[in-house]
Write a structure and sequence with these properties.
By secondary structure, the protein is an all-alpha fold. It has helices at 2-14, 19-28, 35-43, 49-71.
């Protein structure tokens, strides 16, 4: 799980995406969270089924974003 949290931090920074952007993307997929919760999940201080759902959803969103970004000229 640590490497997934690092992946999230890395990709948000690499693409200059905000946590608010990620929160909105998660919400579109039915995962409701807020900045405090997301921050705690990314730091690893919040655990449990919802934290896992947030991490997995975030990784999926960011991988999709990266694939789309790579295809752009």
């Amino acid at each position: 799980m640590q490497e997934k949290r690092e992946f999230i931090r890395e990709k948000l920074g690499k693409f200059s995406l905000s946590q608010i952007w990620l929160i909105n993307e998660l919400e579109e997929r039915g995962i409701v969270t807020d900045k405090t919760e997301l921050s705690s999940v990314i730091k690893g201080t919040r655990r449990g089924p919802k934290a896992t759902e947030i991490i997995e959803g975030s990784v999926e969103i960011l991988k999709h974003y990266e694939d789309k970004y790579k295809r752009c000229p």
